[in-house]
Fold:
Amino acid sequence: MNRIAVFPYDENFYPFLKYSENMIGFEISKVFSVRGWGYVGKKIFDVSDEISRNMLVEDISEKMDVEEFDIFLLAEPEHYVDENYIIQIIDRIARMNKTIWIFKRLSDELIVKVNTICKQNRVEVKIFSSMMESVTFDGEEILYDISTPIIAVAGMGEKTNKMELQIDLAISLQKDKYKIVWISSRNEAVLYSGQRFPEFMYDEGVSEKKKILMYNHYLKWIEQSEKPDVILVGIPGGIMPDSKKQVGYFGITSYEVLNAINPDYFIMSLYGNTLGKNYLDELRNVMKYKFNVEVDSFYVGNAEQDAYSLDKLTPIEYIHLGQLVVDKRVKDVDYTEIPIYTCSTISQLYKNMIERLGEYDDFQSL
Structure:
């Protein structure tokens, strides 16, 4: 069992701690953060009102016990971390002779510095954002049919709990003995035997047309080589800009992925403040006519966007909602066209999904 120390911890890493007992061959043994963020000294689940564990978030600037972890994992946080500070931390860990895994996206300049430090100290480093897939575009400008059922999870934007949803679905499918391939929206999925989102999809030197073709061909290669019962796809980012001042990625990644595949079951994850019959009807039309996909179910996360922050250039602010609040809002909207689920009813979502996929001949219970 490889013991992992995580830094920097904030709510962005929470889903992986919530399901840490399901990690394959890994154990989270230490959790570090920056004191000014408000997590240091708290139990790792205190901030989310979930189950608690006897593990405190520690200050990264204090002394570490090098015997308590094997791998140092640099995560992708919600908060900003200065690059010079990252270099200081990496240099410190490398001198401890610890393996370093970097899930955070780094600039090319920072990657060079990290590799240099690790080489000088003769320690192993994996920078996942610089690892290219072995399968690329085969030259044929065609979209292949993929007969394996595909489950796709997209979101209105960040912090819609789509990562938690993906992990839960992946774990449930594995428990039911389905052979799955999970291509996640986050690098951390490798801790659960998932696969990270293909790096070529972030390559600015590749045209949008080619990305669509490459992603389709990549999934076809996975289908032929691994022969899974089902493919679970997580789509990074949101489906559209939040406002003219909060443009995100304009939903480009969602457009590329959903042009490359035809999901057999599609889940749209929402904010807790974006509910209402007219809104949900319009969103289904947007997905149908812009992305050519039918929404099979909605999933409502436990955060809502601060409307005032959407019209500012500063980062969007979010309000954490208690689960009872989320469940009540879903109940009050009384939407009957397609089902709406929350964390409390995720087992019902899974049951609905399996029943729908059971209509396909290629999806068989084992």
Summary: Confidence is low (pLDDT under 50) at residues 46-52. DSSP finds nine helices and 14 strands in the chain. The chain has two domains: 2-130, 150-357.
